[in-house]
Amino acid sequence: MDFSVSELADAIGSSRVVARIGVIAYPEVSRPNTVGRLKKSLAYFQGKKVDAVVVLGDLTKDGYLNQYRLIAKTWDDVFRNPVTGVDPNPPRRVFVLGDGDRSRYRPEFADELGGDLMPEGGAVEVNGFAFTAMCGRPADLSIPTFYAYGKPALTDELCYYPRTGMAVNAGSLSGVEPKTGYESVKKAASASQGLLVTVYKDEMVVSRLDFGDNEQVAPDWRVPLSKSAEGARLDDTAPQFWDDTRLMVVKGYDQKEGVSYKVTWPPVLAKHTGVRAFSYEVDAVMDVGGRNAVVKRMFVLSPNFFRSEDRDVEPISCRFSAVGMPEGANLCFTVTPVSSAGARGRKLVCSVENFL
């Protein structure tokens, strides 16, 4: 039988793989109509023929027995579906309880759920690859660890932090929750993200996925497994607006809120300037006694910050109320792009004379 060059390369690459592991968190199953995201992720892992699936809490919304049964049924629908046939070699299933699960958990629930259930998380071994699965931020960064903490977007490079360690946040199946201090992004609730981990002898390659969009949301992380190896450090390169980028500021009026200013700008993407901005610092600045003073500040995320940058094409905007701003003052607005690592690019400035 003849093989193409690409088929031969794939075969050689597969022969080097120690294990393939799917890692997801926060399925938060409650009723039958809430299992869709979990089912999509399991079907994806089935297609990739993973050796194990790790599901990190909160597994359920309320911790009731019937919700554990729903999870077990969803697993069976994917891996033991009577229509598509029985998977002769289903992956190992590993479940770690979250805080919400533990509130009503009883030991007999484990029998209903099936697989390996660890109330507090712990050590797991798959094909000789040893790692830790847990909920909460890990303290030991010298061993491979997959954890659930918060519900971050996997576009946030700090999900692999610090980059000299081996701990990776699994993201969230049940929507992203922006960090405190950012303007809320309603679209983030639609995110359904998790990891496909391919383990080799000396490194693991971590693919960041969104199962709803059916795509990879950011480039792979390559995590060295040798304790003596120095991992890839966080990129401290600052995201930059390209040279001809302009802010647009529109002055408006609302009967309830009064005068306001809407500031709009395009997203800063890696394909444009090498580094993607994770957030933006937006300031309203006034001339006070010959000095520029920030009178209001907002921290803003792109409406599609959690998606791949090919989908991050919408203009970004925020609105400043004029309440508290002195009338007739010399006013301008600035926007600074900021990376996940906190590197700050050059700020754009739009003065009152340039309002459109």
Shape: elongated
CATH homologous superfamily name of the largest domain? Metallo-dependent phosphatases
Could you say which structural class the secondary elements and strand pairing correspond to? alpha/beta
Number of helices: 6
Q: Give, in spatial order, the strands making up the sheet with the most strands.
A: 4-3-2-1-9-10-11
How many DSSP E strands?
18
Distance between the termini: 67 Å
Into which percent range does the helicity of residues fall?
A: 10-25%
Number of domains: 2
CATH topology of the largest domain: Purple Acid Phosphatase, chain A, domain 2
Order of helices and strands: HEHEHEHHEEEEEEEEEEHEEEEE
Radius of gyration: 24 Å
Q: What profile does the largest beta sheet have? A: 7 strands, mixed
Strand content: 25-35%
- CATH domain class name of the largest domain: Alpha Beta
Uncertain spans, ≥5 residues at pLDDT below 50?
A: 5-9
CATH architecture of the largest domain: 4-Layer Sandwich
Mean pLDDT score: 88
Q: Could you give the topology of this structure?
A:
Blueprint lengths: L4 H11 L3 E7 L10 H12 L4 E5 L8 H15 L12 E5 L2 H4 L6 H5 L2 E3 L3 E5 L2 E7 L9 E4 L18 E3 L23 E7 L3 E8 L4 E10 L23 E7 L3 E8 L4 H4 L5 E10 L2 E10 L15 E6 L9 E8 L9 E4 L5
Parallel strand pairs: 1-2, 2-3, 3-4, 6-7, 7-8
Antiparallel strand pairs: 1-9, 5-6, 9-10, 10-11, 12-13, 13-16, 14-15, 14-17, 17-18
Helix pairs in contact: 2-3
Q: How does this model look, in words?
A:
With 356 residues, the chain is α/β, with parallel strands linked by helices. The chain has two domains: 220 residues, Purple Acid Phosphatase, chain A, domain 2 (4-Layer Sandwich); 107 residues, Immunoglobulin-like, CATH 2.60.40.4070. It is 14% helix and 33% strand. It has a seven-stranded mixed beta sheet with strand order 4-3-2-1-9-10-11, covered by helices on one side. Helix 2 runs parallel beside helix 3. The longest helix has 15 residues. The radius of gyration is 24 Å and the shape is elongated. The protein starts with a helix and ends in a 5-residue tail after the last strand. About 1% of the residues have low confidence.
